[in-house]
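quick one, 168 residues, struct below
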Amino acid sequence: MVIHVAIGDLTQLTVDAIVYPANSQGVMAGGVAGNLKAAGGQSIEDEAREAAPIAVGAAVVTTAGDLYCKAVIHAPTMEEPGMKIGVENVRRATRAAMLAAARSNHATIAFPIMGTGINGVPVDEAARAMVDELRAHKQPMPQTVYLIASGPEMVFYYEEALKLASQP
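---
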């Protein structure tokens, strides 16, 4: 698997699937979820809510509405919107998203940082947990993962996590 780090806007990507840190209820209110719903349409949330509750450690794949990608992977990091969580939830959500991408035969996927902001996981810990889970994934799909950063600081944290993961 190839991992790329880039500054970008998830709503503009032409990957097979976009992952986002969901909640178990499938509600797409703010943050990354709100941006995806605003750009892609209400149908994305409607499908996720039909599949709810979605456990932390599970993931649901829905259509992408009007987004450029083919699918959205809803990977809960929290049960309720806005909850404080621990880094283990980031690990579980990342692992679930990778397995969902493999099951759906998605070759290229993109992740934002998971579990930070209002959820309370420090950015460096979240980046390390995500990279660890990506490196542990041994299935043939996805072949390419994009870690999408909102700015240069996030790029730094992703790149540091990748350096740490490649050390023996």
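The domain at 2-166 is CATH 3.40.220.10 (Leucine Aminopeptidase, subunit E; domain 1).
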